[in-house]
Amino acid sequence: MYFDGYGYHGTSFEQTYRCYPASFIDKPQLENGDKIIMPPSALDRLASLHIDYPMLFELRNSATERVSHCGVLEFIAEEGMIYMPYWMMENLLLQEGDIVRVKNVTLPKGTYVKLQPHTKDFLDISNPKAILETTLRNFSCLTTGDSIMVAYNNKKYYIDIIESKPSHAISIIETDCEVDFAPPLDYKEPERPVTSVPSSKAPAEGEAAPVEEPKFNPFTGSGRRLDGKPLKYQPPPVSSSTGSKEKQPAVSGGGGVQPSTGSTSQSSSRQSQGKLVFGSNANSSADPQKQKEVAKETKEVVKEEPKFQAFTGKKYSLKG
What we know:
21% helix
């Protein structure tokens, strides 16, 4: 059964049109939503049918089997033509003048939708939620698999509809819909530094590492006598496993001489010598002639120094 020769049949609206982008008509606001412009004959047919309002339509590209959904803004197009947003033509893989089938449908009200921006620049907007809410007021429905366009600050942002409930196509007119965001398509997680050591061997090597570190050993330098005489005992070799043996120096003389005797002889030599000798010239100062020369020099230095004498000035008489 046909209606006025336009090819309408049955109790539903279904018709094919040639589609053109919104730039072909003076309606720039068409790009900021999902509504199309249809011819007046479509309004006559829809008015005679008992359909639900607002009017929602299914758009199908039979050549590629791509499907989307939309609303209608006005009925002022030429017969046999419709105008739609260019981003919607991109979703349906349509070119200018291609054939598209339009059919009226009834969609459930949406309760949940998950969005995924193409670029992370959309998340850099000061308030992306408010921008999205303002943009979706111009939309009547959403379809899973579509990429909607959000225009803000002279820039276009594309967002994919990756999930919707309770159906793959939902109506968002006068409904409370929960919105969730997925990471942007160009988002990359920061790379974590990967260690080449397996996790099972890491604790074992971590425990063995402190053993290899050198420990602090106090008083491990070589000894020098202040009077220049050679030592009567040799210091023991340094080792971390000797334990209490480090505290007892090995006596080379073998005569039962204790370390305290060396210290008493050093203290007595300090009082008699009167000069401190540091450095590596201890062996050269062991010569008795040099020791005598050093002793004479110290005595001369002591003699040459003037001593302090009290009340050694001249006296004068007040009478002149």
